[in-house]
Design a protein that fits this description.
The chain is mainly alpha-helical. The protein has 2 domains: 262 residues, no CATH class; 251 residues, no CATH class. Helices cover 76% and strands 0% of the residues. The chain has 20 helices and no strands. Helix 17 packs antiparallel against helix 20 and helix 18 packs parallel to helix 20.
């Protein structure tokens, strides 16, 4: 088993190093300097291995630090509850969410396919050795930071040391239950395509984690310890059963077949997925002509992921807003807490608007179901055509994202009024306008990124390292905003002015550069 692990680790590392070298080759300016034979360069491979090692360390530690800091510790000050119990409360329910979404065993990655089916490695030895390594990384990665945040929130040191073990036990229990389900149904469930019940459980656990503490109800330390002891007993049994399981090859064969990796190319899979999003209704038409006609047909044929999806999102937001309105009217403690949040925590909504904005989904659909084919025609690459469609798409993207933004902005302003109001009436206006400005900002940002960096190649695979870097910077900038506590009026005013200035500058750059940058990648 040890030999199998080291072989698989070398295979995964080689794949990662080649991906790193390819990403470097795609960077602007650098790609013109580096030759196509750079994969044979010994020095560059050493550099790639160093980066690969840093990524391995980073995924072991940095991700865990950010998770505990941003998802748990930064929220504690919001609640009128004991900090140590609040930390354990959030940690418990978020661990359940993580166990459902990140199983490792049921994730059909390429390195597993290469190892088990192309290199014919022993499926059981490969799976178990890599699973044990993954769980060891989870424990080691969490340990220093559970101790750190345990000290900051006054959790007993012995309990802080046990928290990573709880994460491992939860993942192991969920994996074993999934294996039992596979043995009964003979259907392996891909963790990347969760069932509805999984999403329902995720929503319930998130609500229990983040909303319940507002009612001053959190998990006491003694209850967490009891639940940990139960998980330790069940998890140990599940580890034993997972080790004894023998049908890993059959399970992965089905996972790979269902994901299309075994018999289809990535291009075929992407095309099939994209086609499922289209409504091939001959009655769909448009009274417009030119670019508006072409674009309106696209929008109507993609209602599933454009208008219908955003209407469902808006309905959920409306129902959630009504529930909060009722909550603040019934509970005076929630009313005063909510008023303080609305006047000081507007930066949180930068991340919320980032998560709600459908720019990535829509631009991906534009490429998969339209631009992928149309960019092969010279007339479609004409500057007038590119900019004409850009204008139409921008108007659509903004209007789609404005529906949930309007509900959020109006709900926040009304909620401020319900919870006692404010001495500065402009806060109502700033709350609403800043949310609208954020929505427009992200709509412009995603579309301009798509036109300037066009990240997809002819095989519909995302291959732009620059696009990935910009996405990562955007994510962390929005996440960082959650750490800020600034008066709503001043932050809302500044963020609105920034959104307007950024949008105007981005549009100006797009109009000048898009005709040159919007093209198919090789």
């Amino acid at each position: 088993m040890v030999r199998t692990f080291f072989l698989s680790f070398r295979l995964k590392n080689t794949y990662r190093v080649n991906s790193i070298i390819y990403s470097i080759k795609q960077l602007p300016l650098i790609k013109k300097i580096l030759p196509d034979t750079l994969y044979q360069n010994h020095g560059l491979k050493i550099f790639g291995n160093v980066i690969s090692a840093l990524i391995e360390v980073g995924t072991t530690f940095i991700g865990k630090l950010l998770y505990l800091w941003l998802m748990i510790y930064s929220f504690i000050s919001m609640y009128p509850t004991n900090s140590s119990e609040t930390f354990l409360h959030l940690f418990f329910f978020l661990t359940l969410c993580g166990g459902l979404l990140n199983t490792y065993l049921f994730n059909p990655t390429r390195d597993k396919y290469y190892a088990m089916f192309l290199m014919n490695m022993d499926a059981r030895e490969y799976t178990l050795s890599n699973y044990y390594y993954a769980m060891l990384k989870v424990f080691i990665g969490f340990l220093p930071f559970t101790i750190l945040f345990g000290i900051l929130t006054h959790i007993p040191i012995w309990l802080s040391i046990l928290l990573p073990l709880f994460v491992v036990m939860v993942k192991t229990m969920i994996n074993y239950f999934s294996l039992i389900d596979f043995k009964k149904t003979r259907k392996a469930k891909n963790e990347n395509v969760p069932f509805k019940i999984v999403w329902i459980l995720i929503v319930i656990f998130l609500a229990l984690a983040y909303l319940v503490p507002f009612t001053k109800i959190v998990m006491p330390i003694w209850l967490f310890v009891v639940l940990f002891m139960i998980s330790l007993g069940l998890g140990s049994y599940c580890f034993f059963k997972i080790h004894r399981f023998t049908e890993y090859r059959m399970m992965y064969k089905q996972l790979f077949a269902n994901s299309g990796m075994e018999k289809k190319t990535a291009e075929q899979i992407n095309k099939e997925t994209a086609l499922k999003q289209i409504e091939l209704d001959r009655d769909l038409t448009s009274s417009k002509d030119g670019f508006p006609y072409f674009h309106e047909l696209f929008v109507k044929r993609h209602r599933k992921i454009l208008t219908i999806a955003v209407k469902k999102q808006a309905l959920v937001l409306l129902l959630l807003s009504v529930a909060i309105f009722i909550g603040v009217l019934v509970n005076k403690d929630i009313k005063s807490t909510t008023n303080g949040i609305l006047l000081m925590w507007l930066p949180y909504f930068v991340f919320i608007m980032y998560m709600l904005n459908r720019g990535t989904t829509i631009t991906q659909a534009m490429f998969m179901n339209c631009d992928h084919a149309m960019l092969t025609y010279r007339i479609y690459r004409n500057p007038n055509v590119i900019l004409g469609l850009f204008r139409e798409r921008l108007k659509t993207l903004i209007s789609i994202n404005l529906l949930p933004a309007t509900i959020i902005g109006a709900s926040l302003a009304f909620l401020l009024f319900l919870t006692g109001g404010t001495t500065n009436a402009l806060n109502y206006v700033v709350l609403f306008v800043s949310i609208i400005a954020m929505s427009i900002f992200f709509s412009v940002h995603y579309l301009v990124m798509y036109y300037l960096l066009q990240p997809y190649n002819v095989n519909t695979e995302m291959k732009s390292s620059t696009y990935s870097i910009v996405q990562g910077v955007t994510y962390f900038a929005c996440y960082y905003m959650m750490q800020l506590k600034l008066p709503t009026f001043y932050f809302g005013l500044v963020i609105t002015l920034f959104c307007v200035a950024y949008s105007l500058l981005s549009l100006w750059i797009a109009y000048r550069m898009a005709p040159k940058t919007f093209k198919l990648r090789n």
